């Protein structure tokens, strides 16, 4: 029963993240996303993944593996966009 509840929770939380990931991947727009929040979120999900591996819980492992991949992709896009904007701002100041 516990694995069933864990699996349902894992599916729901992972799927709830999917619309944000799809929107960012389609539009490549990360302006409204917080870099700090995504960095903390990705670190937290990575910790959940490690925890799942340590306790050998498949619902925790699978859900967090999928989520960390999506979050890391979005985080890398956010960092790239932030660096590009910063570079463009510096060039305008010259």
UniProtKB/TrEMBL annotation:
Q: Where are the transmembrane segments?
A: 6-25, 37-55, 61-85
Q: Which UniProt keywords apply?
A: Membrane, Transmembrane, Transmembrane helix
Which Pfam family would be a valid example here? PQ-loop
Q: Where in the cell is it found?
A: Membrane
What GO cellular component entries does it have?
A: membrane
Q: Which InterPro entries match?
A: PQ-loop_rpt, SemiSWEET
Q: In the record, what terms sit under GO molecular function?
A: sugar transmembrane transporter activity
Topology with respect to the bilayer: Multi-pass membrane protein
> NCBIfam families, per this entry?
SemiSWEET_2
The protein's name: Glutathione synthetase
Give the source species: Henriciella mobilis
């Amino acid at each position: 029963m516990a694995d069933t509840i864990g699996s349902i929770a894992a599916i729901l939380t992972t799927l709830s993240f999917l619309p944000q990931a799809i929107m960012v991947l389609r539009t490549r727009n990360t302006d409204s996303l917080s870099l700090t929040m995504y960095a903390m979120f990705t670190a937290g999900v990575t910790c959940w993944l490690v925890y799942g591996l340590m306790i050998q819980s498949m619902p925790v492992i699978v859900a967090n593996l999928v989520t960390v991949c999506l979050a890391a992709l979005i985080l890398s896009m956010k960092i790239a966009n932030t660096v590009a904007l910063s570079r463009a701002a510096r060039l305008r100041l010259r």
